Amino acid sequence: xxxxxxxxxxxxxxEYRTYGADIDxxxxxxxxxxxxxxxxxxxxxxxxxxxxxxxxxxxxxxxxRRFIVVMVFAYDFPYxxx
Length: 82
Description:
The protein has 2 helices and 3 strands. The chain has about 80 residues and is an alpha+beta fold. The longest helix is centred in the middle third of the chain and has 12 residues, at about 30-40.
């Protein structure tokens, strides 16, 4: 990738907490709820469906009763080679 830099366009964050049982990330319903919450937010949906996005990075922090998902969206930005 010569003469390109990657620029972060934006990020979205989803946090889920429970005050009872530990979180089980193999629970498909829990994952579906997280995606639905992000897609029901106009700002998050616009970012996540942008045609400019070329790269997506995902990070997950899981604790016993909470998990956080961070998604970073980036695109290529050409620059002159001097």
